[in-house]
Amino acid sequence: MFANNSEYGLKALHYIAVNASEDERMMAKDIAKALEIPKPFLSKILKQLANKNFIQSVKGPYGGFYLTELQKEISVLDIIVELEGKDKFKQCVLNFENCSDQHPCPIHELVAIEKNALRNTIKNVRIVDLSSHFNY
Fold first, then answer.
1. Three-state secondary structure along the chain?
2. Residue extents of the structural domains in the chain
3. Which CATH number among 3.30.870.10, 1.10.10.10, 2.40.340.10, 3.40.47.10 corresponds to the domain 4-132?
4. Which of 12, 38, 71, 111 could cross-link 67 (Cys pair, CB 3.0–4.6 Å)?
């Protein structure tokens, strides 16, 4: 349903939330190895998230990544929208550009309620909530 960058980004953020702190930052190469994600791809994702303040990044020989307590409370939906560049739950499932409540596609009414419910559910899931779903 989501692109690899969203999957990798969420896994990495959760891994960092569980295993890192301001005093014990994690390097991208170590996260990539632990999660079996290509390091160049993960580094790009982490840089993007750091630039938008979804994660903390410290440069230098003792640098790395970590999340503040406030960042651990960020919605999974916000991360997905940032990494994918759009809110897939607001898009037409048939990818019609002009589909909307005012100009619905043939299945718009059939999926609108479920799409909104799923969006709201994901909006309420935080990075810290992922702990029961990933085992490291």
1. CCCHHHHHHHHHHHHHHHHCCCCCCECHHHHHHHHCCCHHHHHHHHHHHHHCCCCEEECCCCCEEECCCCHHHCEHHHHHHHHHCCCHHHCCCCCCCCCCCCCCCCCHHHHHHHHHHHHHHHHCCEHHHHHHCCCC
2. 4-132
3. 1.10.10.10
4. 71
**Which residues are CB-contacts of 29 (< 8 A; sequence separation ≥ 6)?**
39
pTM for the whole structure: 0.85
- Confidence class of residue 130 from pLDDT cuts 50, 70 and 90? confident
